Amino acid sequence: xxxxxxxxxxxxxxxxxxxxxxxxxxxxxxxxxxxxxxxxxxxxxxxxxxxxxxxxxxxxxxxxxxxxxxxxxxxxxxxxxxx
Length: 83
Prior knowledge:
Blueprint: H1 2-20, H2 26-42, H3 44-80
InterPro entries: Desiccation-related_membrane (IPR052928), YtxH (IPR024623)
Protein name: YtxH domain-containing protein
Organism: Ktedonobacter racemifer DSM 44963
């Protein structure tokens, strides 16, 4: 019973704080959600998602390559005693 009361109390505080420190008004949020809905219905959204996913994949591969090279260099230095 204490858990449920604490949960409801925390939920109430979270909602209250969210309303107080919201970055934009409710009207602006509804307009933004409406725009996203139009994008979803128009079909252009899938192309945008595909482009973003491709960019994220490219960035991930670059990060993997840099990290792998760095770790290989450090391993080589550690084995040779140059660290």
